[in-house]
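Sorry to interrupt, but I need a hand with the structure work. Go ahead and set the record down below:
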Amino acid sequence: MNQCTDPITNSLKLIGGKWKIAIIYNLIDGPKRFGELKKILPPITQQMLTKQLREMERDRLVHRKVYEVIPPKVEYSLTKFGRSLGPVMESWCTWGKANQRIIQQIFANHQSSS
């Protein structure tokens, strides 16, 4: 298991944070426009969504396609590299569902101790 410390750490550096995983998850089923992502991910701010998408584009997880129309239309989709996270997201979702009660108890304990 020790052999996975660096790959896991580096993976989390790439997709970590509050929003990137949620963005990836919502792009798995196909391209979305900026406004669609903003609606799906409240309370993310426009500035934060832009920042996250730019970082993900830089890191080759997301592709940004600009259509030459008026008003401008921009779509975001996962690259092949980004889509390779699909099985990870599926496993994570399965784990989260299977442990939902424990996770909710942990969060409730966090709130009662603050």
About this structure: The chain has one domain: 2-83. The chain is about 60% helix and 10% strand. Strands lie at 32-33, 62-67, 73-78. The longest strand covers residues 62-67.
